[in-house]
Amino acid sequence: MGIQSVRKLRRRYSAATMLIAILGLGSCTIVPPAANNMIPSIGQAVEARPATKTLLVVAATDKGQGVTMPSEQGLLRWSLGSAEPAERAKITESIFRDALMNTLAHSGEFKTVGTAGVQDYRLDGSLYAQQVAIAGFNATATIGVRYKLVETSSQKQVWGDSVVSQCAFSGTESEGNECAMRKNLAVLVERLGRLQL
Amino acid sequence: MKRIVLIIAMSLLIAGCVIEQPQVISQPGISFAHYNALGIAPASNDTGQSADFDFAETFTQDLRSALRGKGYQISDASEAPPDGLIVQCSFVNYEEGNAFTRWLAFGLGASKATVKTTLVDKKSGKAVGDIVTVKEITGGVLGGIGGYEAVLESVANDVSIAIDNKIKGA
Lengths: 197, 170
Description:
The complex is a heterodimer of chains A (about 200) and B (about 170). Chain A is about 35% helix and about 25% strand. Chain A is built from five helices and five strands; from the N terminus they run αβαααββββα.
């Protein structure tokens, strides 16, 4: 075997090792999204006031259409450390409900927050879009939720809006979705804080 | 080695060209078939940033043009007939990007736009549908010169297709 052949083999080996290392690093970080990581820190945006009203939380995710997370698994995602299947990174209905409920419970805007029973108000949250866009080395998670606050006694809608939030991320898609949802819920808390309930 | 570099480069290109067609999300059972007249409200800039040109106005004109091209009766939101559908768009994000940077390094300097669209039934005043559109232009001839406008046109086109598909039940 000549020197040239050895060098060629070494180059191939180095390239293959680098590739395996990149893929290996990526696959070490698979953690599905968790509701606890989506709760925003409640800042000064919410004016302190005694909470007297109770709230029922109803959360839903769009099942048929609207979840537009691309299913392609490009090599870039692996090299970014995002080796999870897109379906696994998705925020499910139960995760969304837990994140929504815990956020509102932490916000202190309502006396009690629950998912059952008759309460003063009902908050409907419909997660209608979750999307991860990857171009080059940039990755952005986008979350769209339509919120509706209804007064139970009158069945009148007190407030409603569609909130779209984004988060540029460098980790896994789960982390990107968690971050975008955290921002979304922070906007919700801020908007609810403005209401005179 | 060259082959590996080529495979990586191709993978990056494929990863950057993922295309997802946005859809109108609405409550089950709501029909859009009767909407023929559309009132287009001026798009709002909710990004908290300004650009060298009025991108929200440029986008509004692009959207009017795209929907008119699909055969709809287009007017301002205030002038739409009572049985019309009001289209309200707001920018969540807009980045002009830079063609030279795009040409230098793939993935950098992208022109980006994220638009939230709410469809409102004029008669009831209720929101009946939502669309989120995310677009990025990452390259093209000489880095995609004019990407800052092309990304707006691309979003407007996607929004018009989503509305058209919903009305026609496609």
